[in-house]
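[recover] target loaded
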């Protein structure tokens, strides 16, 4: 990985100004925090040392970098509450941070905001194997939630390529969709309750909520996908599903996006209740991933224009395997697909998933990436990738070094109508950015899509909501922000 030290966001985007009403954190503030936080709950950068807190200040794509000198890592909800109460009174700006795997610059500061890391709130609180209700602190890493639930014959209803680092609270704050939304639905349906610290320090909690609760407004929904702009999620209750007994998957090569859609319709019909994921990748995604996974032999013999990963999960291995094999044979007979590799055991199943989950790190491995995440009608889903690639290619920017762009690739969740467009770069340049924006957003608007299917708004899409949200919707969002956070101290310069 050629890590780019990101330029400071404040320098890269001089049009964004620090909110002068925010206090600059000083020694008296640190002294106050130390009065109720332990030594390992306060991290300060030594004076003049820009590098000390870089892993908290810089995002995963190496694109955004804040200049915070102070990270607080409280171990309890009460401490989060004390921190927020003080920051609100003192007008100190705060950025809540989970695993910092966010993809829109939402989890890092822009200027000198205090970073409020949830990583030390990492306890599993409770699990009810009868209802499936799983309660944990916001800072539990997703892979640990998966492991705990697997050990208890259940599964966490969401999986992501960043599962080894992302945290449950961050995922809920982002409303990430993940690889199995097709089967388990979105977090707006799976989250049973939340514990949230409001900007003024008040704690609002319905973490003990039952599956059904129809008593008035469902306030927790506002925090799901709010990206930490109206409250800090400190605890999550989520509905875990019973662990399927049989998992199977297949990696398929085919030649056009029209066929991807035909295959999706066929899979829904013929695999029906056992279908749990339907992911696609284009040729460029796999080319980058082959380079990234180096010595790992690719799954298929030939190169194809598109690849599809289908997963089934059900309760009977023989039944599910037979159903999947019959489906694949019929797709081959109908000449819909050219080649397929069906997993024969769990090792092969995991290897097949590795090829899909490695696409984002593969694209990021050349230095960094510009990243877009969109919802579109299925018939239009891949067209945005074609349009953008053509535009960048026409400008002569894609190719071997010294050209700045390695590849422009598309992949994503067909079942959810969600495409990820990654522009893998050796360096970030104004020329590339100007070619991409507002072109991408205008394209999405013309197709009545959404400029974010699951990665959110963050710093990257701040001010761009009008491409897919009406004036009245944006006004309501602003009013909600003002209601919860009148001093606007929580995750400023993001969202609305
Ligand atoms: C994915 O689908 O792989 C995730 O949304 C992450 C990503 O696109 O980087
Ligand atoms: Zn995704």
């Amino acid at each position: 990985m050629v890590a780019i030290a990101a330029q400071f966001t404040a320098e890269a985007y001089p049009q964004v100004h620090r909110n002068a009403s925010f206090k600059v954190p000083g020694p008296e503030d640190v002294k106050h925090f130390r009065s109720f936080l332990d030594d390992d709950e306060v991290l300060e950068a030594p004076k003049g040392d820009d590098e000390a807190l870089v892993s908290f200040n810089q995002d995963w794509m190496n694109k955004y970098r804040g200049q915070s000198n102070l990270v607080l890592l409280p171990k309890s909800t009460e401490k989060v509450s004390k921190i927020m109460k003080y920051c609100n009174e003192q007008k100190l700006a705060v950025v809540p941070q989970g695993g910092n795997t966010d993809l829109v610059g939402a989890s890092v500061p822009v200027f000198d905001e205090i970073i409020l890391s949830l990583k030390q709130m990492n306890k599993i609180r409770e699990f009810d194997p009868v209802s499936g209700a799983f309660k944990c602190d916001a800072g539990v890493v997703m892979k640990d939630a998966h492991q705990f639930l697997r050990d208890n014959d259940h599964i966490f209803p969401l999986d992501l390529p960043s599962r080894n680092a992302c945290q449950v609270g961050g995922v809920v704050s982002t409303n990430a969709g993940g690889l199995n939304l097709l089967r388990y639905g979105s977090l707006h349906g799976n989250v049973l309750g939340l514990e949230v610290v409001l900007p003024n320090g008040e704690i609002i909690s319905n973490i003990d909520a039952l599956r059904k609760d129809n008593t008035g407004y469902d306030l927790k929904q506002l925090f799901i996908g709010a990206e930490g702009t109206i409250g800090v999620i400190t605890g999550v209750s989520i509905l875990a599903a019973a662990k399927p007994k049989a998992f199977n998957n297949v990696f398929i090569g085919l030649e056009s996006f029209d066929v991807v859609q035909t295959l999706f319709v066929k899979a829904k019909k013929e695999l029906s209740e056992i279908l749990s994921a339907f992911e696609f990748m284009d040729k460029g995604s796999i080319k980058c991933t082959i380079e990234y996974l180096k010595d790992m032999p690719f799954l298929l013999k030939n190169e194809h224009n598109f690849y599809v990963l289908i997963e089934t999960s059900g309760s009977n291995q023989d039944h599910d395997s037979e159903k999947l094999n019959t489906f694949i044979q019929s797709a081959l007979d109908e000449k819909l697909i050219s080649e397929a590799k069906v997993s024969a055991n769990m090792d092969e199943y995991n290897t097949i998933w590795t090829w899909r989950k490695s696409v984002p790190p593969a694209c990021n491995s050349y230095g960094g990436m510009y990243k877009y995440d969109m919802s579109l009608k299925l018939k239009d889903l891949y067209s945005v990738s074609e349009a953008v690639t053509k535009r960048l290619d026409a400008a002569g920017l894609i190719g071997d070094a010294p050209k700045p762009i390695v590849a422009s690739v598309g992949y994503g969740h067909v079942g959810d109508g969600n495409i990820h467009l990654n522009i893998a770069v050796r360096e970030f340049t104004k020329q590339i950015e100007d070619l991409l924006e507002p072109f991408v957003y205008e394209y999405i608007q013309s197709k009545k899509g959404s400029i974010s299917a699951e990665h959110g708004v963050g710093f990257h899409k701040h001010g761009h909501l009008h491409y897919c949200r009406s004036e009245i919707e944006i006004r309501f969002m602003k009013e909600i922000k003002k209601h919860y956070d009148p001093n606007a101290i929580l995750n400023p310069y993001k969202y609305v």
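[recover] notes: Residues 317-333 form the longest helix (17 residues).
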